[in-house]
Design a protein that fits this description.
7-stranded mixed β-sheet; Rossmann fold; alpha/beta
């Protein structure tokens, strides 16, 4: 092998023998190549990254993330919201739609006209429509995204007689941008990778990928690890990609309950991305619009709901999206009549479990327990949470979650909440955990067992301890 000529020498010899180049030409090419490589090596050794180096062309005007508030201007006038809402609920003349779909569209239209009872999918449509009218393309791909996994979105109308497709969000006005909604194949890694690439080249577009159930994203974990969570740190490449991951314990078993929230939080550092678990349609509306209404881009991971899509309490008013409204990183207790000096326990949670706690507390008529929701888990809203917790310095602090102890947000929020409690004179300096015990599987396969576990979580969360320790907490 040591006597065998290298490929470059064999090729040069062949070209010389054919009279394509001379021996001098070959030698000169080698010398020039070495000079080029040496020059690039020296440049690489002294290179200092500058995040502004690539912010030109399509990315002109985009900046590195800055400031603390980072809300962006996400509200709309009520007139504008109604205009978009009525346009997107208009059924074209001559279209023969499924009777069930007609009822859904008519109900959506009624809530827009009334100004209250806005559900999740309606708020989502309003967010998409507003961005389209403002000149931002909106692209959503995923598994059953046109209809929605839970038959909630209905972004495409299909004529029952001739199968013609009609997309309401592409018929809002003449000057709007394009809305794309695509039912993609169950090839998560390839589709998510494509959407990531799309978001890198189109910073003015809202680009989203939706899993049919949150844990379907397992098949694309390599894209999350190698690109979405670390692309900016490794290659100075921003992305505003949104991942919509249905999450929540409904008794559907191990494979359809958890979107593996813990995996995304574990990847969070250096403000590389955002992780949300919104509990109201209006906050979801603002979260989507916020992606494009700031002068920087960060990936956004959202734990989206399942049963909350039709929950009677999970609705918003049109005014919650109207003037002077914004995204809330922490949602306060809806019972404004609670007296802070009477509060014995503050239960902090995120997502769907809030509604279980709220309904049971109201049923018991308890007025000594306050409920707080963390809507944005990362970046963690430390100062916002402090502002609320210091109003009840004597109260016991509980973290409640549906997931097993070794999953969900507990491992992350435990120390974060402790840091907050140590910023003021709190009586209890550690939160107490209430949730499922550690488990190898995300959820039980038994519906009856699921219900018992859920009832136990709610009961323990709302029972104020008789014997209290200042240092509550985790093992």
């Amino acid at each position: 092998m040591s006597n065998h000529l290298s490929i470059s020498k064999i090729y040069a010899k062949k070209l010389i023998s054919e009279g394509v180049i001379s021996e001098k030409d070959a030698e000169k090419e080698v010398v020039n190549d070495n000079i080029f490589l040496e020059k690039e090596f020296e440049a690489g050794s002294s290179y200092k990254p500058n995040k502004a180096d690539w912010l030109d062309g399509q990315w002109s005007g985009i900046k590195v993330a800055h400031g603390e508030d980072r809300r962006g201007e996400t509200s709309l006038s009520i007139d504008n919201l109604k205009k978009i809402g009525l346009s997107m609920t208009e059924i074209p003349k001559g279209y023969v739609l499924n009777k069930k779909l007609i009822r859904i569209v008519e109900q959506r239209r009624k809530t827009i006209q009334d100004g209250y009872g806005i559900d999740w999918s309606t708020a989502e449509h309003l967010a998409f429509g507003a961005l389209l009218e403002e000149g931002h393309p909106v692209r959503l791909s995923g598994q059953d995204s046109c209809r929605g996994t839970f038959s909630q979105r209905h972004a495409v109308f299909v004529d029952q007689e001739n199968e013609n497709r009609y997309i309401p969000l592409n018929n809002l006005s003449k000057n709007q941008e394009q809305f794309e909604v695509i039912d993609s194949p169950l090839s998560e890694a390839s589709v998510l990778a494509f959407e990531y690439g799309y978001s890198v080249t189109e910073p003015s577009a809202l680009v989203m990928w939706e899993a049919q159930f949150g844990d379907f994203a397992n098949g694309a974990q390599v894209i999350v690890d190698q690109f979405i969570s670390s692309g900016e740190a490794k290659w100075l490449r921003m992305s505003g990609l949104v991942m919509l991951l249905p999450h929540g314990y409904e008794g559907q078993g191990p494979e359809h309950s958890s979107a593996r929230l813990e995996r995304y939080i574990q990847l969070c550092a250096e403000e590389n991305m955002q992780v949300l678990n919104c509990s109201t349609p209006a906050n979801y509306f603002h979260a989507l619009r916020r992606q494009l209404k700031r002068d920087f881009r960060k990936p956004l991971i959202i734990m989206t709901p399942k049963s909350l899509l039709r929950h009677k309490l999970c609705v918003s008013k049109l005014s919650d999206m109207g003037p002077k409204t914004t995204f809330h990183r922490v949602m306060l207790d809806p019972n404004e009549g609670l007296k802070n000096n009477k509060i014995k326990r503050v239960v902090i949670c995120t997502g769907k479990v809030f509604y279980h706690l709220l309904e049971e507390r109201e049923k018991r008529k308890q007025d000594d327990i306050k409920l707080l929701r963390i809507e944005q888990l990362y970046p963690f809203p430390k100062m916002t949470l402090k502002k609320e917790l210091e109003k009840t310095p004597e109260a016991e602090i509980v973290w409640c979650q549906e997931e097993p102890k070794n999953m969900g947000a507990w491992f992350f929020v435990d120390r974060k909440i402790e840091e907050v409690l140590n910023l003021f004179q709190a009586k209890y300096t550690r939160p107490k955990y209430v949730g499922r015990e550690e488990a190898a599987s995300p959820a039980t396969g038994s519906f009856s067992r699921h219900n018992k576990e859920q009832e136990e979580i709610v009961r323990k969360s709302l029972e104020v301890s008789e014997k209290k320790s200042k240092n509550q907490a985790a093992e």
